[in-house]
Amino acid sequence: MSSTLDSFRPPSPRTYRLALGDLTLPLLYAELAKLETNISHLLRSNVELQLYMHENEGGDGDRELRDAVNENEETIARMKARMEICRAEIEEKGGGVRKCGEDRSRESGEGGEDGEEGVFL
Asked: What pTM was computed for the model?
């Protein structure tokens, strides 16, 4: 007998886009931030799992750990696709978004001291 978690499937991209259609810009920005945070946690988890596997090669849990890393990578790919859908919805509603890592100074003509990149307050 399969559990509820075994039968859980994330919503399709189409269903996700439809769900976003009812959200306001602040909620869309919050959704985008949530996805970025979740991806960050999954990436960190994968690094930790891979380090553990490297340090403990040949252990009984190798297969489970590899499966967990693969599952995280699939989830990250789905979340990145959702981020693109969310960005498109934000732009359709007149909001502006930058992709992670884009240099803000190129958009506004501003820059940090000595051409540094990053967030300047």
From this structure: 0.72
For the record, the structure tokens of 106 come out as: 């190129």
Separation in Å, CA 70 to CA 24, 51, 53, 92, 96: 34, 15, 13, 33, 33
Torsion angles phi and psi, residue 78, rounded to 5: -65, -40
How many residues are there in the chain? 121
Q: Which two tokens stand for residue 101?
A: 């890592």
**Contact indicator for 72, 46 with CB cutoff of 8 Å:** yes
What is the spatial distance between Cα 115 and Cα 121, in angstroms, rounded to a whole number? 15
pLDDT in tens, 31-81: 999 999 999 999 999 999 999 988 887 666 788 999 999 999 999 999 999
